[in-house]
Amino acid sequence: MSADHLFAALASPARRELLRMLRDEGAQPAGRLAERFDMSRPSVSEHLKVLKDAGLVAETRKGRERHYRLEAAPLLELRDWLTPYERFWRERLTALDALLDDMEDDMEDEDAR
Amino acid sequence: MSADHLFAALASPARRELLRMLRDEGAQPAGRLAERFDMSRPSVSEHLKVLKDAGLVAETRKGRERHYRLEAAPLLELRDWLTPYERFWRERLTALDALLDDMEDDMEDEDAR
DNA sequence: TTGATACGTAGGATAATTCCTACGTATAGT
DNA sequence: ACTATACGTAGGAATTATCCTACGTATCAA
After folding, report:
1. Where are the CATH 1.10.10.10 domain residues in chain A?
2. Domain boundaries B3-72, CATH class
3. Where is the HTH arsR-type domain (chains A, B) (predicted)?
Protein backbone atom coordinates (compact mmCIF):
# COMPACT_ATOMS: atom_id res chain seq x y z
CA MET A 1 0.00 0.00 0.00
CA SER A 2 2.72 2.41 0.99
CA ALA A 3 4.77 3.74 -1.86
CA ASP A 4 7.64 4.27 0.52
CA HIS A 5 8.29 0.57 0.86
CA LEU A 6 8.19 0.17 -2.88
CA PHE A 7 10.69 2.91 -3.66
CA ALA A 8 12.93 1.83 -0.80
CA ALA A 9 12.91 -1.75 -2.04
CA LEU A 10 13.94 -0.66 -5.52
CA ALA A 11 16.73 1.54 -4.21
CA SER A 12 19.09 -1.39 -3.81
CA PRO A 13 20.95 -2.61 -6.92
CA ALA A 14 21.07 -6.09 -5.44
CA ARG A 15 17.31 -6.19 -5.12
CA ARG A 16 16.78 -4.88 -8.63
CA GLU A 17 19.10 -7.61 -9.88
CA LEU A 18 17.04 -10.21 -8.03
CA LEU A 19 13.90 -8.88 -9.67
CA ARG A 20 15.58 -9.05 -13.03
CA MET A 21 16.56 -12.67 -12.46
CA LEU A 22 13.04 -13.63 -11.49
CA ARG A 23 11.71 -11.78 -14.48
CA ASP A 24 14.09 -13.29 -17.03
CA GLU A 25 14.50 -16.75 -15.59
CA GLY A 26 11.22 -17.35 -13.86
CA ALA A 27 10.47 -18.46 -10.32
CA GLN A 28 13.37 -20.06 -8.48
CA PRO A 29 14.38 -21.32 -5.08
CA ALA A 30 16.31 -18.86 -2.95
CA GLY A 31 19.49 -20.90 -3.06
CA ARG A 32 19.71 -20.86 -6.80
CA LEU A 33 19.43 -17.12 -6.83
CA ALA A 34 22.08 -16.84 -4.16
CA GLU A 35 24.68 -19.09 -5.75
CA ARG A 36 25.06 -16.73 -8.71
CA PHE A 37 25.25 -13.73 -6.47
CA ASP A 38 28.41 -12.16 -5.14
CA MET A 39 26.84 -12.15 -1.72
CA SER A 40 26.24 -14.59 1.10
CA ARG A 41 23.08 -16.66 1.00
CA PRO A 42 21.62 -15.16 4.19
CA SER A 43 22.04 -11.67 2.76
CA VAL A 44 20.13 -12.68 -0.32
CA SER A 45 17.42 -13.99 1.98
CA GLU A 46 17.26 -10.60 3.66
CA HIS A 47 16.86 -8.86 0.34
CA LEU A 48 14.13 -11.28 -0.67
CA LYS A 49 12.35 -10.43 2.56
CA VAL A 50 12.43 -6.73 1.74
CA LEU A 51 11.07 -7.47 -1.72
CA LYS A 52 8.36 -9.62 -0.19
CA ASP A 53 7.34 -6.87 2.22
CA ALA A 54 7.09 -4.51 -0.73
CA GLY A 55 4.85 -7.03 -2.48
CA LEU A 56 7.29 -7.41 -5.36
CA VAL A 57 7.92 -11.05 -4.72
CA ALA A 58 5.87 -13.96 -3.44
CA GLU A 59 7.06 -17.27 -2.09
CA THR A 60 5.68 -20.75 -2.51
CA ARG A 61 6.98 -23.51 -0.30
CA LYS A 62 7.83 -26.70 -2.09
CA GLY A 63 9.15 -29.15 0.44
CA ARG A 64 12.28 -27.66 1.90
CA GLU A 65 12.65 -25.26 -0.97
CA ARG A 66 11.03 -21.88 -1.25
CA HIS A 67 10.28 -20.75 -4.73
CA TYR A 68 10.25 -17.03 -5.23
CA ARG A 69 8.38 -15.48 -8.07
CA LEU A 70 8.06 -11.98 -9.37
CA GLU A 71 4.94 -10.11 -8.36
CA ALA A 72 4.78 -7.16 -10.72
CA ALA A 73 1.57 -5.56 -9.50
CA PRO A 74 3.23 -2.97 -7.23
CA LEU A 75 5.14 -1.72 -10.24
CA LEU A 76 1.85 -0.38 -11.53
CA GLU A 77 2.04 2.05 -8.66
CA LEU A 78 5.45 3.14 -9.85
CA ARG A 79 4.11 3.62 -13.34
CA ASP A 80 1.23 5.69 -11.99
CA TRP A 81 3.66 7.76 -9.98
CA LEU A 82 5.55 8.44 -13.17
CA THR A 83 2.56 9.57 -15.18
CA PRO A 84 2.27 13.20 -14.03
CA TYR A 85 5.90 13.74 -15.01
CA GLU A 86 5.39 12.62 -18.57
CA ARG A 87 4.36 15.98 -19.90
CA PHE A 88 7.71 17.38 -18.79
CA TRP A 89 9.82 15.34 -21.10
CA ARG A 90 7.28 15.69 -23.85
CA GLU A 91 7.18 19.46 -23.52
CA ARG A 92 10.95 19.62 -23.43
CA LEU A 93 10.95 18.80 -27.09
CA THR A 94 9.13 21.92 -28.12
CA ALA A 95 10.17 25.52 -28.30
CA LEU A 96 6.93 26.50 -26.66
CA ASP A 97 8.00 24.81 -23.47
CA ALA A 98 10.93 27.12 -22.94
CA LEU A 99 8.61 30.06 -23.32
CA LEU A 100 6.13 28.71 -20.80
CA ASP A 101 8.88 27.96 -18.31
CA ASP A 102 10.16 31.49 -18.53
CA MET A 103 6.69 32.87 -18.04
CA GLU A 104 6.03 30.92 -14.88
CA ASP A 105 9.52 31.37 -13.53
CA ASP A 106 9.61 35.10 -13.68
CA MET A 107 7.64 37.77 -15.45
CA GLU A 108 10.20 40.51 -14.99
CA ASP A 109 13.66 40.41 -16.58
CA GLU A 110 12.85 38.57 -19.73
CA ASP A 111 15.29 40.67 -21.77
CA ALA A 112 18.23 40.42 -19.40
CA ARG A 113 19.93 37.80 -21.52
CA MET B 1 23.98 7.80 -16.24
CA SER B 2 24.00 5.47 -13.28
CA ALA B 3 20.58 4.17 -12.42
CA ASP B 4 21.71 3.67 -8.84
CA HIS B 5 21.76 7.38 -8.14
CA LEU B 6 18.34 7.77 -9.67
CA PHE B 7 16.68 5.03 -7.65
CA ALA B 8 18.46 6.12 -4.50
CA ALA B 9 17.32 9.70 -5.00
CA LEU B 10 13.71 8.60 -5.37
CA ALA B 11 13.84 6.40 -2.29
CA SER B 12 13.29 9.35 0.03
CA PRO B 13 9.70 10.57 0.54
CA ALA B 14 11.01 14.06 1.22
CA ARG B 15 12.76 14.16 -2.14
CA ARG B 16 9.72 12.83 -3.96
CA GLU B 17 7.68 15.56 -2.32
CA LEU B 18 10.18 18.15 -3.52
CA LEU B 19 9.88 16.82 -7.04
CA ARG B 20 6.13 16.99 -6.80
CA MET B 21 6.27 20.60 -5.68
CA LEU B 22 8.52 21.56 -8.56
CA ARG B 23 6.26 19.70 -10.93
CA ASP B 24 2.99 21.21 -9.72
CA GLU B 25 4.16 24.66 -8.78
CA GLY B 26 7.02 25.28 -11.16
CA ALA B 27 10.58 26.38 -10.48
CA GLN B 28 11.17 27.99 -7.11
CA PRO B 29 13.93 29.26 -4.87
CA ALA B 30 15.17 26.80 -2.25
CA GLY B 31 13.84 28.87 0.62
CA ARG B 32 10.27 28.84 -0.61
CA LEU B 33 10.37 25.09 -0.86
CA ALA B 34 11.82 24.81 2.60
CA GLU B 35 9.34 27.05 4.37
CA ARG B 36 6.48 24.69 3.61
CA PHE B 37 8.47 21.69 4.65
CA ASP B 38 8.50 20.17 8.10
CA MET B 39 12.26 20.15 7.96
CA SER B 40 15.09 22.59 8.46
CA ARG B 41 16.20 24.66 5.49
CA PRO B 42 19.72 23.16 5.37
CA SER B 43 18.24 19.67 5.24
CA VAL B 44 16.13 20.65 2.27
CA SER B 45 19.30 21.96 0.66
CA GLU B 46 20.90 18.58 1.17
CA HIS B 47 17.98 16.83 -0.46
CA LEU B 48 18.11 19.23 -3.37
CA LYS B 49 21.77 18.38 -3.78
CA VAL B 50 20.99 14.68 -4.00
CA LEU B 51 18.31 15.41 -6.59
CA LYS B 52 20.76 17.55 -8.52
CA ASP B 53 23.38 14.80 -8.51
CA ALA B 54 20.76 12.45 -9.88
CA GLY B 55 20.00 14.96 -12.62
CA LEU B 56 16.40 15.32 -11.47
CA VAL B 57 16.75 18.97 -10.65
CA ALA B 58 18.72 21.88 -12.05
CA GLU B 59 19.50 25.21 -10.46
CA THR B 60 19.65 28.68 -11.91
CA ARG B 61 21.16 31.45 -9.88
CA LYS B 62 19.19 34.63 -9.81
CA GLY B 63 20.97 37.10 -7.60
CA ARG B 64 21.17 35.61 -4.17
CA GLU B 65 18.38 33.21 -4.89
CA ARG B 66 18.75 29.82 -6.50
CA HIS B 67 15.81 28.68 -8.52
CA TYR B 68 15.39 24.95 -8.72
CA ARG B 69 13.48 23.41 -11.54
CA LEU B 70 12.42 19.88 -12.31
CA GLU B 71 14.55 18.03 -14.82
CA ALA B 72 12.43 15.09 -15.86
CA ALA B 73 14.80 13.48 -18.35
CA PRO B 74 16.24 10.91 -15.93
CA LEU B 75 12.73 9.64 -15.33
CA LEU B 76 12.81 8.30 -18.85
CA GLU B 77 15.38 5.88 -17.57
CA LEU B 78 12.98 4.79 -14.88
CA ARG B 79 10.27 4.30 -17.45
CA ASP B 80 12.63 2.22 -19.56
CA TRP B 81 13.56 0.17 -16.56
CA LEU B 82 9.88 -0.53 -16.03
CA THR B 83 9.20 -1.66 -19.59
CA PRO B 84 10.39 -5.28 -19.39
CA TYR B 85 8.07 -5.82 -16.44
CA GLU B 86 5.00 -4.71 -18.30
CA ARG B 87 4.16 -8.06 -19.74
CA PHE B 88 3.84 -9.42 -16.21
CA TRP B 89 0.92 -7.28 -15.26
CA ARG B 90 -0.54 -7.65 -18.71
CA GLU B 91 -0.55 -11.40 -18.28
CA ARG B 92 -2.42 -10.89 -15.06
CA LEU B 93 -5.29 -9.34 -16.99
CA THR B 94 -6.60 -12.65 -18.20
CA ALA B 95 -10.10 -13.25 -16.99
CA LEU B 96 -9.15 -15.58 -14.20
CA ASP B 97 -6.40 -13.42 -12.80
CA ALA B 98 -8.52 -10.32 -12.98
CA LEU B 99 -11.16 -12.06 -10.92
CA LEU B 100 -8.66 -13.25 -8.35
CA ASP B 101 -7.05 -9.84 -8.18
CA ASP B 102 -10.33 -8.13 -7.49
CA MET B 103 -11.12 -10.55 -4.72
CA GLU B 104 -7.79 -10.50 -2.94
CA ASP B 105 -6.39 -7.11 -3.69
CA ASP B 106 -8.88 -4.34 -3.55
CA MET B 107 -12.33 -3.04 -4.24
CA GLU B 108 -10.80 0.07 -5.68
CA ASP B 109 -11.65 1.93 -8.83
CA GLU B 110 -9.46 -0.02 -11.18
CA ASP B 111 -12.42 -0.83 -13.38
CA ALA B 112 -14.83 1.75 -12.07
CA ARG B 113 -13.84 4.39 -14.56
C1' DT C 1 16.98 -42.34 13.47
C1' DT C 2 20.85 -40.04 11.50
C1' DG C 3 22.87 -36.95 8.45
C1' DA C 4 22.64 -33.81 4.78
C1' DT C 5 20.14 -29.98 2.46
C1' DA C 6 17.53 -25.56 2.06
C1' DC C 7 16.41 -22.25 4.19
C1' DG C 8 15.48 -18.18 7.72
C1' DT C 9 16.92 -15.57 11.93
C1' DA C 10 20.18 -13.54 15.50
C1' DG C 11 23.63 -10.70 16.52
C1' DG C 12 27.11 -7.59 15.33
C1' DA C 13 30.44 -4.70 12.70
C1' DT C 14 30.62 -1.02 9.43
C1' DA C 15 28.87 2.23 6.41
C1' DA C 16 25.42 5.22 4.75
C1' DT C 17 21.39 8.17 5.47
C1' DT C 18 18.96 11.64 7.65
C1' DC C 19 18.32 15.13 10.42
C1' DC C 20 19.95 19.02 13.32
C1' DT C 21 22.56 23.56 14.84
C1' DA C 22 26.30 26.44 13.91
C1' DC C 23 28.85 28.98 10.64
C1' DG C 24 30.63 30.89 6.08
C1' DT C 25 29.75 33.30 1.66
C1' DA C 26 27.66 36.00 -1.73
C1' DT C 27 24.21 39.35 -3.00
C1' DA C 28 20.78 43.23 -2.06
C1' DG C 29 19.33 47.12 0.11
C1' DT C 30 20.40 51.47 2.72
C1' DA D 1 30.47 50.59 4.54
C1' DC D 2 27.07 48.02 7.17
C1' DT D 3 23.11 44.95 7.86
C1' DA D 4 19.82 41.66 6.31
C1' DT D 5 18.72 37.94 3.27
C1' DA D 6 19.31 33.53 0.77
C1' DC D 7 21.73 30.22 0.53
C1' DG D 8 25.33 26.17 1.04
C1' DT D 9 28.65 23.54 3.98
C1' DA D 10 30.75 21.50 8.35
C1' DG D 11 30.37 18.61 11.86
C1' DG D 12 27.94 15.59 14.67
C1' DA D 13 24.09 12.72 16.74
C1' DA D 14 20.78 9.28 15.89
C1' DT D 15 18.88 6.05 12.92
C1' DT D 16 18.78 2.72 9.34
C1' DA D 17 20.95 -0.25 5.72
C1' DT D 18 23.98 -3.62 4.37
C1' DC D 19 26.82 -7.11 4.79
C1' DC D 20 28.88 -11.04 7.41
C1' DT D 21 29.30 -15.62 10.41
C1' DA D 22 27.01 -18.55 13.51
C1' DC D 23 23.05 -21.00 14.63
C1' DG D 24 18.12 -22.93 14.58
C1' DT D 25 14.40 -25.35 12.06
C1' DA D 26 12.08 -28.03 8.76
C1' DT D 27 12.42 -31.45 5.13
C1' DC D 28 14.38 -35.18 2.56
C1' DA D 29 17.01 -39.42 1.87
C1' DA D 30 19.13 -43.60 3.83
Report:
1. 3-73
2. mainly alpha
3. 1-90
